[in-house]
Fold this protein.
Amino acid sequence: MAVLRRKKKKGDGKDSLLELVAMVAVALLLALGIQAFLVKPFRIPSESMVPTLSVGQRVLADRVSFRLSDPEPGDIIVFKPPAGADHATCGTEHSSQQPCPRPTEERSDTNFIKRVVAVPGDRVRIERGQAIVNGEALDEPYLRPDASCGICNLPEEITVPDDHYFMMGDNRGASEDSRVWGPIPKDSIIGKAFFTYWPPKRIGIP
């Protein structure tokens, strides 16, 4: 019995290659679009968020939530710090007994991850590594306190400026944060860390 064979047309191989290239391009565009507008992966670079997040742990940051609502104390966020963070510099002169009240105007190119401890209009001071907000100790069950570090006791209050957020690492003795370089403006926020996906034993909500 004769077997019918499809005669290979000229251009079939070229069409397949073009289709593959188009599929890869679409997948790449979708991945870039997701990172740009929806979700961005982030690797924890330091010990500043221990014990909540460890060095090398990977999280996903939601880029949509803060377009619809404002950050709240307790939120873990990924953001671009002020350029002063690159050199441990505050944006204004201030007492050595108080946190940095204002950041530098320029923005760093580095991504940071910290926790919101105070929002616009809040009054903040630090005692034994703990945030005292509007005269009351913030409920921080995730905290690794430290009474001895150079920025763990800042008894003079500052007021967080409008549209700014005061950020601190959970590992208070090993975190350089808003205490040093000031609150961050809202438009520096990349997104809220909502899920950790690596290593496997740490998968879940941070």
